[in-house]
Amino acid sequence: MAEAAINFFKADLRSLQFTLYEHFQIQRLFEYDYYSHMSREECDAVIDQCYRFCNEVLGPLNQIGDRVGCRFENGQVKTPEGFREAWKKLYELGLPNFPVPMAIGGFQGPVSVHVILQEMLSGANVAFNMYPGLTHGALELIAEFALEREKKLFLEPMMNGRFSGTMCLSEPHAGSDVGALTTKAVRIEGNRYKIQGTKCWISAGDHDLTENIVHMVLARVEGAPPGTKGLSLFIVPKIRVNDDGSLGEPNDVVTASIEHKLGINASATAVLNFGENDRCEGYL
After folding, report:
1. Each residue's pLDDT tens digit, 232-274
2. Residues near 222 by beta carbon (within 8 Å), at least 6 away in sequence
3. Which is nearest to 235 in space by CA: 123, 177, 125, 149?
4. Domains of the chain and CATH, by start
5. Which residues contact 163 (CB under 8 A, 6 or more apart)?
6. How far apart are CA 92 and CA 1, in angstroms?
7. Which 8-state DSSP code applies to residue 108?
8. 12: helix, coil or strand?
9. 60 Cβ neighbours under 8 A, 6+ residues apart
10. How many CA atoms lie less than 13 Å away from 44 in the CB half-sphere?
């Protein structure tokens, strides 16, 4: 007999509302042009929607997901049953895009409300929330710093949940000392570079929730100075993306293993090899 899913998540909505409206008084933000399209009623509706999602979807998945964990089979990470459906529902609701500017398709809501949403999502199922959390960070970097071509290729699918994202900083010999990393980048043309190296402890580094994973990879361009001053950040998709937005060939990003942890087992913490066959490309 299958184990019944039990929800242990609880949140005091009155306490959250007190923090937002009586302590921080975020309603004053709605007087400014940037937030003039928002209101307390709309923010409360989003918070209520997130609360229901946590109680009905994420909370019940938490205990089972942690007990079952991710599986590494034939070079591919498999997330626990129910995670793919939860991912799809999360992006249908649009919750990850609440603070994202309207100029790129977001709701442009107050970051303080976004923090409340993240508090509830992580409280209900922190392992699951690692995946959209890393995606949001990668999306913000691309929106702020990428060239227009890469923005066109990656932003929309990351907004609608078709692609996810990660941050690839640490290496086996370079954890706290990030300036010691050895992943290298060799220029091909324009902002295209060949990437070669190994990254470890990469949260959400591989999974089956999305069609593609967009890795933000720290690497050192040939001739760059040592230490952190010589590092650059590259957009490295797991699967290359054609100019029309369709998926191309694999980008020589290989998952070597996932960590066996004491907790948050449904969040895949991966070791990733970039460019084992000298065919991994990234965009500066």
Report:
1. 999 999 999 999 999 999 999 999 999 999 999 999 999 999 9
2. 184, 185, 186, 187
3. 149
4. 13-145 (1.10.540.10), 163-283 (2.40.110.20)
5. 135, 154, 157, 210, 211, 212, 213, 214, 237
6. 31
7. -
8. coil
9. 5, 6, 7
10. 11
